[in-house]
Amino acid sequence: MTGAVKLDDSWKAALSEELASPYMADLRSFLKAEMADGKEIFPKGSEIFAALDLTPLDRVKIVILGQDPYHGDGQAHGLCFSVQPGVRTPPSLKNIYKELAADLGIAPAKHGNLVNWAQQGVLLLNSVLTVERGLAASHRGRGWERFTDAVIARVNELRNPVVFLLWGSYAQKKAQFVDASRHLVLKAPHPSPLSAHTGFLGCRHFSQANAFLEKNGMEPVDWQLPETP
C-alpha cells in the first residue's frame, strides 16, 4: 500500500501469504496508479489497516462487519461505522447508539469515533478497505474482498469463541462460512435508517454479546465510549 502502513505483527504473520500474493500486488499497483492520476483515496495510507492494527488477532472478541469506507472528507479512518473526531455522527451509527441505549442504558456518545471499542477487542472490519473520494463502492472488486475473507477465516480459526455481529444481508453473506457451532453468530437488519426499524432496533445484540463473553470466561466489552475520543 501507499504511505507508512501500520499493521499489527499478529496479523502480518497470519496473513503473510495473502500480503505476498499476486492479487495484493495488483491491488497495490491499482492504488498507486489512482493516486498518481491525482485521485484522493480514503482512508489515508497509514490507516488502511487500522482495524487490524488496533485489534490484534489474539485479542479479537467481537467482529462487526461493514462494507466500504466513508467517502466524504475527513470521515474514514479504517474502522467500519466509525468517523474521525469532530465529524458528525453518521445516521447508521446514530441507530447503533440508539440500540445501545435501549439494550444497555448507555447514553449516546457525542462523537462517532469507535477506537475505544477496537482497543477492547472489537474488530471493526470493512469488506473493502479503500475508496475514492466522493465515489461510494469505487474500489469494490479490486481484491479487498478476498483479503478480508481471509481475515474472517483467521478469526474463525481462533481457539477462543468469538461473537460475530452481522448486520444486513451483505455482512451475513460475507461471513456465511463462520462456524456457528463454536462462535456466536448474531444477525439483524442493517442499522441504516432505511432498514433499522425492520429488526435492528430491538435486536439486543450488545447485551447478548457480553453475556456470551462472560459465559466463556472473557471480559465483556464496555460499550460506553469516553466523552472525548
From TrEMBL:
High-level lineage: Bacteria, Pseudomonadati, Pseudomonadota, Alphaproteobacteria, Hyphomicrobiales
Pfam families: UDG (PF03167)
Active-site residue numbers: D68
Superkingdom: Bacteria
Species per Swiss-Prot/TrEMBL record: Hoeflea algicola
Protein name listed in UniProt: Uracil-DNA glycosylase
GO molecular function list: uracil DNA N-glycosylase activity
Role of this protein: Excises uracil residues from the DNA which can arise as a result of misincorporation of dUMP residues by DNA polymerase or due to deamination of cytosine.
Record keyword DNA damage present: yes
Reaction(s) this enzyme catalyzes, per UniProt: Hydrolyzes single-stranded DNA or mismatched double-stranded DNA and polynucleotides, releasing free uracil
Similarity comment: family membership: Belongs to the uracil-DNA glycosylase (UDG) superfamily. UNG family.
Location(s), subcellular: Cytoplasm
The enzyme's E.C. designation: 3.2.2.27
Entry keyword annotation includes Coiled coil: no
Alphabetical UniProt keywords: Cytoplasm, DNA damage, DNA repair, Glycosidase, Hydrolase
Major location (coarse): cytoplasm
PROSITE patterns the record matches: U_DNA_GLYCOSYLASE
NCBIfam families xref list: PRK05254.1-1, PRK05254.1-2, PRK05254.1-4, PRK05254.1-5, ung
Residues covered by the Uracil-DNA glycosylase-like domain: 53-213
